[in-house]
What we know:
- This protein is mainly alpha-helical.
- 68% of the residues lie in helices and 2% in strands.
- The chain has helices spanning 2-6, 14-17, 22-52, 64-69, 78-92, 98-124, 132-153, 178-196, 204-221, 224-229, 241-259, 268-285, 289-295, 297-316, 326-332, 337-357, and strands at 161-163, 171-173.
- Strands 1-2 form a two-stranded antiparallel ribbon.
- The longest helix has 31 residues, at 22-52.
Amino acid sequence: MLYDLTRPFAEHVLLFNLFRYLTFRSGAACLTSLAVSFWLGPKLIRWLKRMQHQGQPIREDGPERHLLEKKGTPTMGGLLIIGTMTVSTLLWVDLRNTYVWAVLFITWGYGLLGFADDYLKVTKRSHKGVSGKKKLLVQMVVGLATAIWLVTLARPPLATDLLVPVFKDVLIPLGMFFPVFAMLVMMGASNAVNLTDGLDGLAIVPTMITAAVFALIAYLVGNRIFAGYLELTYVPGVGELAVFLAALIGAGMGFLWFNAPPAAVFMGDIGSLSLGGALGAVAVATKHEIVLVIVGGLFVVETVSVIIQVFWYKRTGTRVFLMAPLHHHFEKKGWAEPTIVIRFWIISMVLALIGLATLKIR
């Protein structure tokens, strides 16, 4: 909004000229969402406590200490993240950029699904919310709509091609199947972040790390000069997504302030589903879907651990892990929660560096 308001005066007023730069607006978006989170967080947490009374239901088949340490903590803290992120984005982004609206669409589409899931869990006092089939159906509809929207924004044939990192000019033409592929990327990212969200601070920091990597990717591939220098595929318009991702990072830091152990509030599905979907949509928009698998490798491993556990248990009646997702396995082995969380953060940072290396290796 501020970009659009100051654009006519940018050439005459030096201060307003700053608003033309993506780097300035991205930094401002990050600080804005962080500041709003600090101001709004305590108020939202008090309101959630009044509304939820007993807080988020804790699974009885989970780690025993959760019943003692996490009981009574309110959920739906994701409202703080996507709320402040959206306000900051709309304040600093170029509102004419359609990529931003497409990503906000899936963010709130998945966010509303997560809200419904959290609401049912809290009101029914059960860890079961929206049924799995209904959840997947909504994710498919919203994801496919976003995928088709993103395809219409990119220039053909790039719009329906899958780029392979490291190998320059290697494109896999998916044609009419690309929207389905893109939908699966967004659904997969959404559910992967959701599965990772099981310990205080575990999901939000890797989410911020992934967002930071893709903010850089969006900035580079959206700039013709930088894209040409690094031999990246130029995607006009996606650079504006750096502002959105910077706002996400600021909102994530604000949420982490209250989610740090012992957490005053949990993210809930409203946060994890929406953030994962947003990251997936950005990966599709920037044509770096495979890089998302690398940078978000922690989310992938957590998801694979659940798939392996369920598959093996149905086949043999035995478990591969003491408990899935993987972070619960280490809890069962006696690792302290901060140990698991920090080590997973380190793994996420290493994977981010590997993902960034693909931008230069050609």
